[in-house]
Amino acid sequence: MTDNNNALKNGANGLFQGPAAFLFPGQGAQEVGMGKDLYDASAAARSIIDEADRALGFALSGLMFGGPAAELERTINSQPAILTMSLACLTVAGEHAGHSLQASASFMAGHSLGEYTALAAAGALDIGDAVRLVRERGRLMQEACDQRPGTMAAILGMDQAPLEEVCKETNTQVANINAPGQIVISGAEEDIARAVKLAAERGAKRALPLKVSGAFHSYLMGPALDGMLKALDKVTFHTAAVPVVANCTVKAMTSAQEIKEELAQQICGCVRWQESVNFMVSAGVGTFVEFGPGKVLSGMVKRIATGVHVAAVNDIASAKNLTNTQAGVP
Predict the structure, then answer these.
(1) What is the maximum alpha-carbon separation in the chain?
(2) What tens digit of pLDDT does each residue of 61-116 get?
(3) Axis-axis angle for helices 43-56, 75-97 (nearest 10)
(4) What is the C-alpha separation between 206 and 217, in angstroms, rounded?
């Protein structure tokens, strides 16, 4: 496996040799200062970020570039910030390539919040609608956290089947299946504490509570569902120009109806990331490029798949490297 943007090469159909998938990170990837170099150096990035500011009616860019961190980390702010940063990264990479990159992707996928970014990148959502929608999603999720407090835990080194038994016995829920031996569970705090103890007793290598504000992707997010359905009904979805692999169903979706159904299901449903990556590999994808802050998804892909190429675009330098055609795929 090659973790090197320079290992990517222009092919007959664009920037990449063979099918490529574009990935977009979820909540937690945010950091103060993200996007500032893109904004200063690229008119294309500036246009994306300015559009997000206008759509929200306040300077989201100010939080992205200067914080404070506590304000950027609030769910209501971090979700539109990560989406905006990720789209800016994709746009800048296309700017350096000399053409839009969307046509170079066979699939797009995003982890939780990142699914909205993938839909915007695939043309299913306008940027203004996307940032407003995820800000409302963040508000509703935080409201649900306040109404029905909960938390999450990472269970490492335990197979899915025995962990699901633990969840049944503790009234918890599998929330993210991220990679082999890396599964996140969600539920009420006392239930998660019991699940962590039980998982450790049954062979988990590590079982660690996470520092999160709520039990995301679980039944405890139920109070957010009605509001999310109303928000989704107000948005015009377009047919996706590139198939987006759904978190919950692991199906390649393009139609507005299946997109709306997936986004509704995702509020309380499990993010099946490992299966999503395997689905794309089985469809022939040999290159995965993550656009946005951090390299979390890139790391997961390395654990899931072998013999694929992985790259991450999170600043000007990595955007330029992605379009470097001097080195061939080994």
Answers:
(1) 56
(2) 999 999 999 999 999 999 999 999 999 999 999 998 888 898 899 999 999 999 99
(3) 150
(4) 21
Does 217 participate in catalysis according to the annotation?
Answer: yes
Three-class SS state of 313: strand
For the chain, what's the residue count?
330
Domain boundaries, the chain: 2-146+218-322, 149-209
Which of the four CATH numbers 3.10.20.740, 3.40.50.970, 3.90.1300.10, 3.40.366.10 does domain 2-146+218-322 have? 3.40.366.10
- Active site residue: 61, 104, 112, 276, which one? 112
One of 61, 104, 111, 217 is an active-site residue; which one?
217
- Amino acid 19 reads P
- The whole-angstrom separation of Cα 78 and Cα 135 is 8
Q: What is the pLDDT of residues 131-167, one digit of tens each?
A: 999 999 999 999 999 999 999 999 999 999 999 999 9
Distance CA 307, CA 68 (A): 41
- The count of other CB atoms within 10 Å of the CB of residue 84 is 31
To the query of whether residue 106 is one of the catalytic residues in this protein, the response is: no
How far is C-alpha 304 from the geometric centre of its chain's CA atoms?
Answer: 16
pTM reported for the whole predicted model: 0.92
